[in-house]
Specification:
Elements lengths: L15 H13 L7 H20 L5 E2 L4 E2 L3 H4 L15
Amino acid sequence: EAEPVPGPAGLLEGYGVHQAKFIDCLRTRRRPPCDAADAHLSTTVLHLANISYRTGRKIHWDAGKEQTINDPEANTYLAKEYRKPWSLNG
């Protein structure tokens, strides 16, 4: 498992390269090589694979709506119920 780099020394090798690029983007306000939108798209595929495994069937995905097509059961895996008082709705 990658260990976080606690300071500037070592930022130019291994996992530190990623951290150094992130810090540089904060300073320069440039877009990082992989931003949150890229990460969302990348992990969506993995979540869909897990949903397919859990339901035991092929998943058909509507990327625009971010929902499965004609599969209400599979859609239940797209979110979870949060414990009170936590909510994503404000």
